[in-house]
Amino acid sequence: MTAASESFEAVLVSDEPLQTAPSDLRSKEVCLFLADYAVSLLGCGATCIRLVKNVVRMAAAFGKKVELTIMPRHIHITVWHPHCDDIFTSIASVKNTPISFNLNTRLSELSWDVADNGLTISEAKQKFHEIISSDKANPWLTLLLASLANASFCGIFGGDLTAMVIVFLATAFGFNLKQMLAARHVDVRVIVFLCAFVSTVIGATANLFGLGNTPDVAIATSVLYLVPGIPFLNSFSDLLYRHYICAFSRFTDALVLTGCLSLGLCLGMRLMNVAMF
Description:
Number of helices: 11
Structural class: alpha+beta
Helix content: 55-70%
Number of strands: 4
C-alpha cells in the first residue's frame, strides 16, 4: 500500500510491532474509532507527529497496520490486518474546536492506556467519549487566569502597577467578549479583530487620561492574549517533520489571525488618538 502523490502527505507504517488482537476485531471498527480520535486530537491543537505516533501506537495494540494522510481539514486513514484481506478506509473532517492542552494530554494518555494496559476497543471508545465530553473548563476561572497572566506580561515588559491594572481590565473585557462570540460560533478571525479593538480601546485609557508612567506598555500588552502562538509553534513542528501542507496551512492561519489582531489594534489606537509611530 503506497501513497504516491505530491498533492498530499502520507505516513506509512510498516515496521510497528503488532500485539495479539481478538480474532473478531474488524478493521472497520478500529478505523472508525481511530479516525474519530485523530480528528479530535488534531482539532485541539496537537502536532502531526504526535497524532501519527498516538494513532500508530493504538493500531499496533489492536493488531492492525495503519496508513495516514493528514490534511489541514481532513484525515484519510486506512487500517488493515497484515495477514488477511480485512481492510477499511475512512475520511474524516477535522473538528474545529478550541485549542486545549488538557484534551491534548488526556487523549495522548489514552493511546498509552491502550498500548500498555491492553484496553479493548469498547473500553477505549468509552474512555475517549468520557474525555471529549468532560473537557469543559470553568469559563470564569479561565477568564481570571488569562487576565492575571496578561497583566503579568505587562509587568515583565516594564509596565507599572497602573498599567498592569489597566491591562487586567482590558484583557478581562476582551477575553469575555471572545468567550461569548465563540459560544455563538462567530468566525475566529472576526473574534480576534473585535477583541483586539476592545482591548486596545480600554488599554489606551492610560494614555488618554495620563494614568501611570508606562501607558505605551499598557497598550502594547493589552492584546498579547490574542497572539496565535500555538499555531506558529505547531507549524514549525510540522515543518521539521516534513508535514509541509499542514505546516503551511497552520502558518497561514496564524498570519491571518495576526493580521486581524493588528487591524483591531490599529483601529483602536486610531479611535483613541494614540500615535502609532
